[in-house]
Specification:
This protein has two helices and four strands. It has one domain: P-loop containing nucleotide triphosphate hydrolases (Rossmann fold). The model has no long low-confidence stretch (mean pLDDT about 95). With about 100 residues, it is of the alpha+beta class. It has a four-stranded antiparallel β-sheet with strand order 2-1-3-4, covered by helices on one side. Bound molecules: adenosine-5'-triphosphate and magnesium ion.
């Protein structure tokens, strides 16, 4: 279901480039439930952003549900997310004046 190979992701912060993910390999089968744990700043959110097609990796392969995310443009990534991804964000930015209804 999920196959990640040698994933690297670097972003440029105020103090210069930050190599956040440095060679992640991960395989998750359909039906498996996985928790990712690690200290604050370890890169858990960044990994999930890459896995869900919200952040482009610097290098490596991400395949989800048979789709290689590298081959998708922005519109393709949006369609991929609509079809395959559901996320509750760490900062979920709910609008306090509105209800779900
Ligand atoms: N847009 C960005 N630009 C530069 N550096 C970033 C950016 N986003 C995250 N980082 C850095 O990348 C590292 C990993 O951040 P990330 O948010 O993925 O960690 P985390 O494991 O989810 O942490 P937490 O447990 O606090 O949620 C941190 O050092 C963070 O400061
Ligand atoms: Mg996080």
């Amino acid at each position: 279901m999920v196959e990640i190979k040698d994933l690297h992701l670097s972003l440029v912060g105020g103090a210069g480039p930050v190599n956040i993910l440095r060679g992640i390999d991960l395989q998750i089968e359909a039906g498996q439930t996985v928790s990712i744990v690690g200290p604050s700043g370890a890169g858990k959110t960044t990994l999930l952003m890459a896995l869900s097609g919200l952040e482009r990796p610097t290098d490596g392969i991400i395949q989800v549900a048979g789709v290689n995310l590298h081959q998708l443009n922005e519109d393709g990534l949006a369609r991929f997310r609509r079809r395959h991804i559901g996320i509750v964000f760490q900062s979920f930015h709910l609008v306090p004046t509105m209800t779900a209804l």
